[in-house]
Amino acid sequence: MRLWDAATGTELAALRGHEGAVNAAAFTEDAKRVVSVGQDATLRVWDVASGKAVCTLKGHAGAVRCVAASGDRAFSGGRDKTVRVWSLEQGKTVRVLEGHREGVGALALSSDGTRALSGSDDLTVRLWDLASGKALRTLAGHEGRVTAVAFLPGGKRAVWEAKTRA
What we know:
Strand content: over 45%
Number of strands: 16
Number of helices: 0
Helix content: under 10%
Order of helices and strands: EEEEEEEEEEEEEEEE
Structural class: mainly beta
């Protein structure tokens, strides 16, 4: 993975460490860290200023496909059908959200950080309450795997994309 200065086009650092493809990355809100996820079933937390790896987080049983960050927390979705909630300070999983029947490939957090959406290859989107870890609802009816999800600011509406199975 490479860190760039978007204004100048200057490469700031090459972030090396994943053993395989990097599938997604997300900056923390303070922009001091970036979290990357990959085919090697890990999350890597990087210090933006130094370009050095802070820690490697393990817990998924298979490729990690998506990531989001809010406060001290990172959220990851993987082929193992789970969404994991991580404490970046403690460097460990603090909750596992289960319910999808296939891999999770898309995540979004509400602007207030209380809810999450997860999109899956099982053709559903789940709305999660992050305080309890409970699925509030499952939104079904798609004809393909869900590849992207997003909340409207304010968190009362959401949108997602589903790829039609060929």
